[in-house]
Every structure is written in C-alpha cells, then in structure tokens.
Specification:
Helices cover about 60% and strands about 10% of the residues. It is mainly alpha-helical. It has a domain at about 45-140: dinb family like domain (Four Helix Bundle (Hemerythrin (Met), subunit A)). The chain has a two-stranded antiparallel ribbon. A hairpin with a 3-residue loop joins strand 1 (about 110-115) and strand 2. Belongs to the DinB family. It holds the Pfam family DinB. InterPro entries: DinB, DinB/YfiT-like.
C-alpha cells in the first residue's frame, strides 16, 4: 500500500486517540468505574486540563477558528468529565483530519501564539505538533 500524507496524518491522529483512550483506561481502573486519581493525586486534574487545552487550542488554529483569549483556558470540573472531553476532542481531531485532502494538509495557515508572535505552518505540521505536544503532556501525567 502506498503511503501518502493523508494516510500518515490520519494514522497519526488515530494513534493520538488510541493513546488518550489508553490513558483514560489506566486512570479509571477501579471497581466503581470512577477515576481512581481524583482525590489521591489532584495535580493530575491540572495536567489533564493542560492536555485537553493543548488539543483544543491547536484544533482551533488548524481549522482557523481560534476563539480563545490570550489567557490559557482552565477546564474546571470533575476528572471524569476531563477524561471524557479529552477522548471526544481527540475523536473530533481524527474526524476533521480524515476529511482533509492532500492539498489542504499542505496548505499554510497563519496563526498567533500570544507572547511568541505570528507563525505560518502547513496544516500537516500543525497536526504533527499537536500530537507531539499531546504525547509530551501524557508523559507528564504518566510520570506524576
């Protein structure tokens, strides 16, 4: 099978969804079905919030629908809701990417990172960065 940018990008996002599902499964492994880390490790909530924010912020940039303020979003609420939202966000990224053409993936998108300046990257590079950043955030949660 010939690999193309569309297939590679879709596979990358499918990996991201799988990895986030694995993280959710490991964090919720208990008999009651609720997150085992909610009271024992409250800092996990902050790290999950950051992971969700990373994916959401990059998705907004990739689609050109950035609406957030310069302040970082903080997701309040139960860890169970954060875990669910994380999987849903990863599913949305995979669905969005699955519909992109090769030309759309190669198209450059301009965006701003507050405090860092203006940037211009292809959608593929942005998607690759998103998954890499998410992987880094998952790693911080695992080693916590």
């Amino acid at each position: 099978m010939k690999m193309n940018l569309q297939t590679l990008t879709k596979d990358l996002c499918a990996y991201n969804l799988w990895a986030n599902n694995e993280l959710v499964n490991r964090l919720t492994e208990n008999k009651e079905g609720t997150a085992a880390v909610s009271t024992e490790l409250p800092h996990i909530n902050q790290k999950l919030s950051r992971l969700l924010a990373v994916e959401e912020e990059w998705m907004e940039k990739i689609t050109g629908k950035e609406q957030r303020s310069p302040e970082e979003k903080i997701f309040e609420g139960a860890i169970d809701a954060l875990l669910k939202d994380l999987v849903v966000q990863s599913e949305h990224l995979l669905q969005y990417v699955s519909g992109l053409s090769e030309d759309t993936l190669k198209e450059k998108v301009s965006f701003d990172i507050p405090g860092s300046g203006d940037f211009n990257m292809t959608r593929y590079e942005m998607i690759q960065h998103t998954v890499g950043d998410s992987t880094h955030c998952r790693g911080e949660i695992v080693i916590s």
